[in-house]
């Protein structure tokens, strides 16, 4: 069994959604993302029509993860500060 994912942590969820995004770019029509945090299991299904929503969620998580780690974002601003 895989380690539980803390879905409140953007840095933990980001790799899962990023993988789904790249699979869809590669031609997959739908992508099912399932992750667990403790006793809670989450599942989200993205279809080709949702690729923009998935892209925006990946970008949001990238910014949130950067802010959490005090890194500079791609816009040159210090995240979280």
UniProtKB/TrEMBL annotation:
InterPro entries: GpW_sf (IPR036626). Gene3D superfamilies: Head-to-tail joining protein W. It comes from the Bacteria. This is GpW. It comes from Chelatococcus sambhunathii.
């Amino acid at each position: 069994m895989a380690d539980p994912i803390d879905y409140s942590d953007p840095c933990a969820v980001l790799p899962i959604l990023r993988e789904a995004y790249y699979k869809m770019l590669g031609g997959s029509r739908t992508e099912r993302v399932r992750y667990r945090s403790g006793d809670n299991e989450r599942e989200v299904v993205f279809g080709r029509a949702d690729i923009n929503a998935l892209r925006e969620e990946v970008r949001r998580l990238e910014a949130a993860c950067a802010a959490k780690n005090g890194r500079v974002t791609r816009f040159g601003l210090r995240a979280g500060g």
